[in-house]
């Protein structure tokens, strides 16, 4: 049973924008840290951004600061990742994840309770 449902991936030229969405049930969404991870072939999956559904404090990987924005729609139990000024190096498979806390090490893949199925994002040079 899929707990996190992602949508919004695709292909865009460099400099373009995409918005990813991750929806879940109210039971999972409430009082949870929601995050987006990215995996590039031959590399580990790394955190891109995180935000807690209670305090809403976003955290970003240095590589995306100023270009990506993570946000919440509490009425829809949905977390978004707005990606602007996309670069070819942003290409990869993007995953939504959830767990009860964010923490300073949110960008590591261990201890996340739920994962989405993954979305392909391709940025053409």
Summarize the structure in words.
Helices cover 3% and strands 46% of the residues. It has one helix spanning 26-29; strands at residues 5-7, 10-13, 18-23, 33-39, 45-52, 59-60, 68-73, 78-83, 92-99, 114-115, 119-124. A hairpin with a 6-residue loop joins β5 (45-52) and β6. The longest helix has 4 residues, at 26-29. The N and C termini lie far apart (37 Å).
Question: Summary?
Answer:
This protein has 125 residues and is mostly beta strands.
What descriptive keywords fit this protein?
125 residues, mainly beta, seven-stranded mixed β-sheet, four-stranded antiparallel β-sheet, globular
Note the topology.
Layout: E1 5-7, E2 10-13, E3 18-23, H1 26-29, E4 33-39, E5 45-52, E6 59-60, E7 68-73, E8 78-83, E9 92-99, E10 114-115, E11 119-124
Parallel strand pairs: 2-11
Antiparallel strand pairs: 1-3, 3-8, 4-5, 4-9, 5-6, 7-8, 9-10, 9-11
């Amino acid at each position: 049973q899929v707990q996190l449902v992602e949508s919004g991936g695709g292909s865009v030229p460099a400099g373009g924008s995409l918005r990813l969405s991750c929806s879940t049930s109210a039971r999972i969404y409430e009082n949870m840290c929601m995050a987006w991870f990215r995996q590039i072939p031959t590399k580990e999956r790394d955190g891109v951004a995180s935000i807690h559904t209670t305090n809403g404090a976003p955290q970003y990987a240095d590589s995306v600061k100023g270009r990506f924005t993570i946000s919440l729609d509490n009425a829809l139990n949905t977390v978004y990742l707005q990606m602007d000024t996309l670069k070819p190096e942003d290409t990869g498979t993007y995953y939504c994840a959830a767990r009860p806390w964010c923490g300073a090490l949110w960008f590591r893949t261990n201890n996340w309770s739920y994962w989405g199925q993954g979305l392909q994002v391709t940025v053409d040079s």
